[in-house]
Amino acid sequence: MVRQPAINAQNRAPLSTERIIETALQIVDGQGLSRLTMRRLGDALEVEAMAIYHHLPRGKEQLLDGLVAHVAAAPAAVPAGAADGGWRGALRSWARDYRARLLAHAGVLPLVVTRRNPTALTETVVSLREIMRRGAVTEDAAATAAHTLVGYVIGHCALEVRGTGEDGADRVVDWDARFDAGLDLVLTAAG
């Protein structure tokens, strides 16, 4: 029998909120949201579950909020312009990146839809509004369009993840084409 060397605690990265969130995200991505427990997370981090509470005093509630902030707010930095069309191109690029991020972490999508995380949403909407205002879209129109764009991307991802593969007319759904067509409608209406 060959013995595996014991993992030395000194060789592990120090426990941090970021490391906890990243590890929780790996569990959700690999096993699903229902399999995320503090004990399983502690095992994955090679620490006692109670050590996690030092970084997340509110426990699993704070962990779930952290997952939402990490996944939903990641692409909040919107490029100031894009080669394919000014502010609309920048928003198109943001929407595609945001969709990719949400689909890559589809296990967290139910949390993005149902949990309140005003900071993540506010930062994203402010970034989107600023891009539109630079494109001469009025403040009121930019506020409405930013909210609509965020809702469109999240809603489309929720439908895509749940997807049936056909659209009710017994046609196979091309989710990329459908996303881009809907995105064009939203951006055209934006101003």
Describe the structure.
There is one protein chain. This protein folds into two domains: 9-57, Homeodomain-like (Arc Repressor Mutant, subunit A), CATH 1.10.10; 72-189, Orthogonal Bundle (Tetracycline Repressor, domain 2). It is globular, with a radius of gyration of 20 Å. With 191 residues, it is mainly α. Helix 5 (86-104) crosses helix 9. The model is unreliable at 1-6 (pLDDT under 50). The longest helix is centred in the C-terminal third of the chain and has 24 residues, at 139-162. It has helices at 17-31, 38-45, 49-55, 60-72, 86-104, 109-114, 118-134, 139-162, 175-189. The N and C termini lie far apart (70 Å). It has nine helices and no strands. Residues 84-163 form the Tetracycline repressor TetR C-terminal domain.
CATH topology of the largest domain: Tetracycline Repressor, domain 2
Please state roughly what percent of the residues sit in beta strands, choosing from under 5%, 5-15%, 15-25%, 25-35%, 35-45% or over 45%: under 5%
Q: Whole-number radius of gyration?
A: 20 Å
Percent of residues in helices comes to: 55-70%
N/C terminus separation = 70 Å
Tell me, briefly, the overall form. Answer: globular
